[in-house]
Amino acid sequence: MLETVVVVVHLLGALGVVALVLLQQGKGADAGASFGAGASATVFGSQGSATFLSRFTAILAAAFFITSLGLAFFAKEKADNISQAGLPDPAALEVQQNKPASDVPVLEEQKSDVEKSDVPQAPEQK
Length: 126
Hints:
single chain; 126 residues; mainly alpha
């Protein structure tokens, strides 16, 4: 239940960060705003928009990082539970793979159906 909530907050935070970054103006757009290019038509005033959006982006980015750490914790817990469920340790599997297998059957050489007398001899050249 808690993991589902963290995943939902994580996804909403990621989408929010992407949307807010796309909404913000680049540094080159500030030069036009200083000459009065549409600054009076903004909701937050001439400087308030950049401060509000950058602060909200920072808050969402921090929430994204915190939920990332939470998801990493949940993944570690699941990995620990799986390792305690009776599955072999990967190090033990590596030791078994390097050990020569003596119980593996070896194929015997197959006898060919064609004997040497059935093959015609090449004519001798002089």
